[in-house]
Specification:
Helix content: over 70%
Largest sheet: none
Strand content: under 5%
Number of strands: 0
Distance between the termini: 45 Å
Amino acid sequence: MFAVLQIAIVLLVVLAGLLVGAFDEMQLGFTGIATLCSVAVTGLLTLIGILQLRRSRLTAYHWFVRSVLVSIFVTQVFTFLESELTALWGFSVDILIYTALKIMIEREQLMASDMVSEAHSAPDAP
């Protein structure tokens, strides 16, 4: 779900960039190249998270948090330099995703600690 949302954000940023002429005739400056590189890193971290989902949701969620943090602290900075309004929407979505991930991580950790305490408190069967 988060991967789909990240891809949608990337597509919206690119579309908005095309609409306002940020990628006019594909002449990318430093900010355009930096944005594309940070989007690629964000996508890679999201992909690692997706691959980790089968093994451990908690580990996958941590990879998704890394992805969102790169998006917030790198991608959004360069997007803001290109188009403030587009960056504001992307930043807002990133903050919402980050908040949801932190809640999900807390719940996973709580469930894991409950399982451990139940296993330790259960009487041994003869």
